[in-house]
């Protein structure tokens, strides 16, 4: 993987590697395999990733928290507030 990264770093920093002919010539002088060279030439990140055996597989999961059973539901809160207001009004 480090050879591929070095090749990509060189390509990013070398202004002469802007056209396909120069890129192809450069890639033939590198130590990456033909499959990786084709992926870079095709500008296919997915294809390039498939050629790298030691590329770590990243997984992400979102955490889902259970609902809080003690928290009153909004409708219940409104009903409680309405009942409290009526009770206060009838007390006068």
TrEMBL record:
User: Residue ranges under compositional bias (Acidic residues)?
Assistant: 67-81
Q: Which domain of life is it from?
A: Bacteria
Compositional bias (Polar residues): 82-92
Looking at the record, which segments are called Disordered? 65-92
This protein's name: Uncharacterized protein
